Amino acid sequence: MIRKLSMADASFERSPGQDDDVFAANLVDQRHGGPITIGYGRYGPNQGLNEKLAVHDVMLVLEGRLSVSSGDVHVTAGPGEIVYMPKGDTVTIRAHDEGALTAYVTYPHWQEPGAA
Amino acid sequence: MIRKLSMADASFERSPGQDDDVFAANLVDQRHGGPITIGYGRYGPNQGLNEKLAVHDVMLVLEGRLSVSSGDVHVTAGPGEIVYMPKGDTVTIRAHDEGALTAYVTYPHWQEPGAA
Question: What Pfam families would the database entry show (chains A, B) (predicted)?
Answer without folding.
Answer: EutQ
